[in-house]
Amino acid sequence: MDRRLRCLVINRTQSIVLGKEPVFHDGKPVGYVTSAAYGFTLGKPIAYSYLPSSVQLGDEVEIDYFGTRIPATVTADPLFDPEMTRLRG
């Protein structure tokens, strides 16, 4: 199965995951969180996960955090300054 590292933006701003939590798509486990943190420039928590290539940008997934399913959206990377306007001199 072909997998890709995908960025997940967590839809609930008060929910933060730590890493190693399972990720579900259409009710089936498809991966796990490899890393997570709070995205201060976005004002939302973010996570990364290797997901099957069938999971596309914009798809909704759920992260299982101690029995609670936290909704997240698969997004394009990078989240900060995708046009690279702030990094130029």
Looking at this protein, list some descriptive labels.
six-stranded antiparallel barrel; Elongation Factor Tu (Ef-tu), domain 3; mainly beta; 0% helix
Order of helices and strands: EEEEEE
Number of domains: 1
Per CATH, the superfamily is: Aminomethyltransferase beta-barrel domains
Shape, per Cα inertia axes = globular
Named at the architecture level, the CATH assignment is Beta Barrel
Strand content: over 45%
Radius of gyration: 13 Å
For the terminal residues, how far apart are their CA atoms?
42 Å
Q: Structural class, from helix and strand content?
A: mainly beta
What's the CATH topology label? Elongation Factor Tu (Ef-tu), domain 3
Mean pLDDT level:
90
Please give the largest β-sheet.
6 strands, antiparallel, barrel
Percentage of residues in helical conformation: under 10%
Question: Can you list the strand order of the major beta sheet?
Answer: 1-4-3-2-5-6
User: Which residues form runs of ≥5 with pLDDT under 50?
Assistant: none
What is the name of the CATH class?
Answer: Mainly Beta
Tally of helical segments? 0
Number of strands: 6
How would you describe this structure to a colleague?
- The model has no long low-confidence stretch (mean pLDDT 90).
- A hairpin with a 2-residue loop joins β2 (22-25) and β3.
- By secondary structure, this protein is mostly beta strands.
- It has a single domain (3-75), classed as Aminomethyltransferase beta-barrel domains (Elongation Factor Tu (Ef-tu), domain 3), CATH 2.40.30.110.
- The N and C termini lie far apart (42 Å).
- The chain is globular and about 40 Å long.
- It has no helices and six strands.
- It has a six-stranded antiparallel beta barrel.
- It has strands at 3-10, 22-25, 28-39, 44-52, 60-65, 68-75.
